[in-house]
Design goal:
The protein is α+β, with helices and mostly antiparallel strands. The chain is built from seven helices and ten strands.
């Protein structure tokens, strides 16, 4: 595993980011299509704005590479900026000055909410302790409240929240989530889910509203949406909790597992150690990744 090392004569900045993923094809920058058409991504949008302001190429490392249609309120990324560039822009002593400048360059569906100086070894991806996602879903017969239609999914059946929580309780802990993930070459599907809970979040404006809060050390591709969909099927009485228990024993993607719509999913938080513990955290991550690579 290769960790991003600080660039000489540069400062490492941490960016806290929020975006509406509806009109983005995910986080990661992608190659242009065969006809030269560019695919709109969050990474490219942010890097282009930063490069324009700083007048140097900007390359972001992100905590979680969200899929197309997935949102974020607590995304985190880092980048290294030459000290000279920050001095020339009069922001070397206060990187927070980048926030209003970026607001002028960015489209309305993506915002950098905070910029701060980071520990030289801070790594938005590998220093993360855990990540938290929230999934919003409405079961109201009329559908989703129009003002929340971009970040809330609709499930057109009544559900039993206790049955859904029974499934959530099953997936907490260290498990192989191969049945719930799209496999990536040479990547493990073992993850530690530290918490998964369903809450009824109904209000007078949004009746029949439910939220799933799930926190883990990391997530594999499509894992959260697959877990949510499995909970919903059990909650609607179409499956039994024992079905999910059986899926946790499988070591390959199950065709029985469906995906909840991307629009309901938001990356809400990423947790990091204190600055003095960053090096130790990176060592743990490196050892874990190296062990998995040797196992492959």
């Amino acid at each position: 595993m290769t960790l991003a090392q600080p660039v000489k004569d540069s400062l490492r900045l941490r960016l806290d980011i929020a975006y509406d993923g509806t009109d983005f094809h995910g986080w990661a920058r992608q190659k242009p299509a065969a006809d030269g058409t560019a695919t709109r991504t969050v990474q490219e949008t942010l890097e282009d704005a930063l490069s324009t302001i700083l007048r140097v190429p900007a390359r972001l490392t992100v905590a979680g590479r969200t899929d197309a249609g997935v949102h974020a309120s607590g995304q985190v990324a880092h980048l290294d900026v030459p000290r000279a560039s920050l001095v020339q822009r009069s922001i070397d002593g206060d990187p927070g000055k980048l926030v209003p400048r970026l607001a002028k360059f960015l489209p309305e569906d993506v915002r950098v909410t905070k910029v701060a100086m980071a520990h030289p070894l801070f790594d938005a991806r590998f220093a993360a302790i855990d990540r938290t996602y929230v999934y919003r879903v409405s079961t109201h017969p009329s559908g989703v409240l129009p003002t929340r239609v971009r970040d809330t999914a609709w499930w057109p059946r009544p559900i039993d929240i206790e049955r859904m929580q029974a499934v959530a309780d099953l997936v907490v802990g260290l498990n192989d989530f191969a049945a719930f993930c799209k496999a990536r070459p040479h990547a493990t599907t073992v993850r530690e889910v530290k918490e998964m809970r369903w809450v009824e979040a109904s209000t007078s404006e949004e009746p029949c509203l439910y939220e799933a809060h799930i926190r883990a050390d990391a997530f594999c591709w499509n894992m959260v949406r697959a877990l949510v969909a499995s909970c919903l099927h059990v909650g609607a009485g179409r499956r039994d909790p024992a079905w999910v228990e059986g899926l946790l024993e499988k070591r390959e993607r199950s065709p029985q597992v469906q995906l909840a719509p991307a629009k309901g999913l938001t990356l809400s938080a990423v947790t990091y150690p204190a600055d003095e513990d960053v090096a130790a955290r990176l060592a743990v991550t490196r050892d874990k990744r190296d062990l998995l690579e040797r196992a492959d």
